[in-house]
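Just wondering, does anyone understand what follows?

——
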Amino acid sequence: MTIDAIDLFRALADKTRLRCLALLMTEGELCVCELTEAIGLSQPKVSRHLATLRTVGVVDDRRSGQWIYYRLHPDLPAWVRRVLRAAFLAANSDRTFSADRTAFRRITRRPKSMCRGSTTTAARAPARQNQRPSSP
């Protein structure tokens, strides 16, 4: 596997992509919805950043029904793994990254995760979209 260094560093220059990578490095394979919940950004935005990482070759994806799961690419060159580790260690002191890990732990404590086949969450999703915002 060949990864262009300039493309890699461009991809790592974005905080959202680093946040996604940090969670993938610590938690392993994750669904887009898990990443979206943990970092608190919209699904289209997270998906766009993950697509950039996939294009560069840093992450790999797989589809399972309607869900798309991402993980670090298993065939990353050693130099890329070292760069990712260094970026992770440098970013680890940032409060945003620790908040992401805390948020992720909260969502995994649910009886059924959103994307792991939970019918209750899927059934509730359309109802939430149609709810009117509560007045203050």
User: Anything to note?
Assistant: Residues 5-109 form a domain with the Arc Repressor Mutant, subunit A fold (CATH 1.10.10.10). The beta strands are 30-31, 59-64, 67-72.
